[in-house]
């Protein structure tokens, strides 16, 4: 008589240093940046890195915990950015209105596209998300009333209850940092909840989760909507950073960058994508300053990290004795 296969075990509880000390160290170092380097360029660069980290963090929810490889994730970034800029062009400049609209727009787009995409799996899911991402990109290029290919410029950053506090680069920096911390804590709570356990369980053994009475589709769709909303929030911040939006924000190459950030930092760790998002952004900026052919150098670097640091930077730290 054949033995009944053992149930798929959920991943073990991460070590204490990864759950508490590593995030504390990362966020503390980010908080110290304005006190060490007050130059506008440095503040803008690290702000951009943190915004990209928010986008990578949102992708980790569906990629690291749901095994959903999306090549259209950058569409949410662009939707959030365009929501803020379009409202700005109609004299709706307060963040208390623009940011919730951006989050809602990202969530609605994720709900509609996710309901279709999640009917498929594997390479078919990848292709459908890529198609939806390209649809969003070409829609943005066709918006001639809002700049089309040339993009849309904002004359100043969003106001906060009638004040222009975000115009101060240091204040904006800490708003971005605070948003990053809040998003991290939110997704950490979601992953640690029953919802997160079901999502991870469906990743490990979908048939068993169905037998237990859970519908993986509903949980994956909810996770997809949450990821889209969080990424749209990063887009709203991105629009304010440069006071400019463009269809290029939505390209599949940008989605590929998000995947690289998650993979290099460490999938399914939450703190890993933050490290990956900041690291990739800073390395790209450094290489671009050295040569215009920086991608020729960056590509092999990614390959080497993928080969010798399997599981990302966080797993590399674990193997180095961080347990």
Would you kindly provide a written description of the structure presented here, covering whatever features stand out?
The protein has 323 residues and is mostly helical. The protein has a domain at 40-251. It contains 13 helices and two strands; from the N terminus they run αααααβααααβαααα. Strands 1-2 form a two-stranded antiparallel sheet. Helix 1 (16-36) runs antiparallel to helix 6 (169-192), helix 3 packs across helix 9 and helix 4 (95-117) crosses helix 5. The longest helix has 27 residues, at 216-242. It starts with 15 loop residues before the first helix and ends with a helix. Mean pLDDT is 88; it is low at 1-10.
Shape estimate:
globular
Number of strands: 2
Q: Which stretches are low in confidence, meaning pLDDT under 50 for 5 or more residues running?
A: 1-10
Mean pLDDT across all residues, rounded?
A: 88
Helices, by number, come to 13
Residues in helix, % = over 70%
Order of helices and strands: HHHHHEHHHHEHHHH
- Give the N-terminus to C-terminus distance in angstroms: 41 Å
Largest sheet: 2 strands, antiparallel
Radius of gyration: 20 Å
GO molecular function: branched-chain amino acid transmembrane transporter activity
Membrane topology: Multi-pass membrane protein
Protein name: Branched-chain amino acid ABC transporter permease
Organism: Phreatobacter cathodiphilus
Layout of helices and strands:
Elements (H helix, E strand, L loop, with lengths): L15 H21 L3 H24 L10 H16 L5 H23 L5 H19 L10 E2 L15 H24 L1 H11 L1 H6 L4 H27 L1 E2 L6 H14 L5 H20 L3 H15 L3 H11 L1
